[in-house]
Amino acid sequence: MLAAIPFDVHVTDTYFVVSHLHFVLYGGSVFAIYAGIYHWFPKMTGRMLNEPLGKIHFAMTYVFFFLTFFPQNILGILGMPRRVAVYAPEFQGLNTLVSLAAFGLGISTFVFLANAIYSLARGPRAARTPGVR
After folding, report:
1. Hey, which of 1, 12, 57, 75 would disulfide with 111, CB 3.0 to 4.6 Å?
2. Rounded to whole angstroms, how far apart are CA atoms 80 and 90?
């Protein structure tokens, strides 16, 4: 999108660029890392992860990921600049949403850690080929 000069002129040095970068990097890498851990955890530890906690973790991560980074797209298109200490009042509502969602995203990581610790201690033993029923 930023290769289109009329669009790039409008969003250069705004929160849109921040959002776009984090959507690609966080969405593309962290979700893939979680997928790899969920896939390989039984083979690495011999224990299965708790499935309901895994579903809660995924739902929280997915929702809070979008609530953290999508409003930044809107803020950038509206013209909110990057690298400022105090934002204009018209951006306060969406910035509050972004901040609260970022805390939720952090909490979703604790759900994952609790699942991993619980599963290491008390999770059911993994079958020779986990996931195959």
Report:
1. 57
2. 9
Cα–Cα distance, 99 to 75 (Å, whole number): 13
User: pTM of whole model > 0.70?
Assistant: yes
Instruction: Note whether 51 and 111 are within 8 A (CB).
Output: no
Q: What average pLDDT is seen over the chain?
A: 92
Query: What is d(CA 119, CA 42) in angstroms, rounded to the nearest whole number?
Result: 10
Q: Is the CB of residue 98 less than 8 Å from the CB of residue 23?
A: no
> CB-based contacts of 16: which residues, under 8 Å, 6+ apart?
72, 73, 75, 76, 77
